[in-house]
Amino acid sequence: MQIKICGVTNVEDAKACVELGAQMIGLNFYPRSPRYIEPTVARQIVQAIRPGVQAVGVFVDANADEVRDAANIAGIRSVQLHGNFSPDMGRELTREFRVIRAFSTHAHFGPEEVASFPDCDVLVDAHHPDLRGGTGRTCDWPTARATLPFARFLILSGGLNAQNVGQAITAVTPHAVDVCSGVESAPGAKDCRAIQSFIAAVRMADAAVNVSHS
């Protein structure tokens, strides 16, 4: 079970996330987010973390050139796309990056929609009318579970924390989990103790799921 900690805004938090066991960190390039950072700041973070840890750039309604330019400045090879992105754009960007296509579990979402992005990994998040990630809202776990057959790699997001992530893993059995506000003391400020508790809860639930499937 891989762990992604999103909304990292500084080098110290990034190093703490990695040292505590995260395999991915998310860097937010959406200007309306309280966790937004400039690509040049992201580059300092990317250079400070050890090789093998994936830095993921988070974009909302950006075009391919905007994604490419920010990712190249930041020095990242993974991008997470929220909002209006066509399968063609996803296909184009997968030639250069690992692409994670984000979907929200709103009333009109159908799990089969994910099949239109076969070259992308998938993140399932809670729906919010204004925000894209970091809302603290829990996504619809049965819908996320129903998305699994259509996704080659499924990341579960939306309102996860140390108290509910075990239940979420049991309900959905994703390939990875994504946490943001659930390990913060304030937007963009990570809490090491909360990260430790979250990762311990993930490891415990992942072990239990593996035992039940063996």
Report on the structure:
- By secondary structure, this protein is an alpha/beta fold.
- The protein has one domain (2-213): Alpha-Beta Barrel (TIM Barrel), CATH 3.20.20.
- 35% of the residues lie in helices and 21% in strands.
- Helix 6 packs parallel to helix 7 (192-213).
- The chain is globular, with a radius of gyration of 16 Å.
- It starts with a strand and ends with a helix.
- The model has no long low-confidence stretch (mean pLDDT 93).
Topology overview:
Elements: E1 2-5, H1 11-20, E2 24-28, H2 39-48, E3 54-60, H3 64-74, E4 78-82, H4 87-93, E5 98-104, E6 121-125, H5 141-147, E7 154-156, H6 165-172, E8 176-179, E9 184-186, E10 189-190, H7 192-213
Parallel strand pairs: 1-2, 1-8, 2-3, 3-4, 4-5, 5-6, 6-7, 7-8
Antiparallel strand pairs: 9-10
Helix pairs in contact: 1-7, 2-3, 6-7
Brief summary of the model shown:
With 214 residues, the protein is an alpha/beta fold.
Helix count, DSSP H or I runs of 4 or more residues: 7
Overall body shape: globular
Query: How big a fraction of the residues is strand?
Result: 15-25%
SS class: alpha/beta
CATH homologous superfamily title: Aldolase class I
Percent of residues in helical segments? 25-40%
Query: Order of strands across the biggest sheet?
Result: 1-2-3-4-5-6-7-8
Q: In the CATH hierarchy, what is the architecture at level 2? A: Alpha-Beta Barrel
Class, according to the CATH hierarchy?
A: Alpha Beta
State the separation between the terminal residues, measured CA to CA.
Answer: 16 Å
Question: Main sheet, how many strands, which sense, barrel?
Answer: 8 strands, parallel, barrel
N to C succession of SSEs: EHEHEHEHEEHEHEEEH
Mean pLDDT: 93
Number of strands: 10
The name of the CATH topology is TIM Barrel
The number of domains = 1
Q: What's the gyration radius in Å? A: 16 Å
Low-pLDDT residue intervals, each spanning 5 or more residues = none
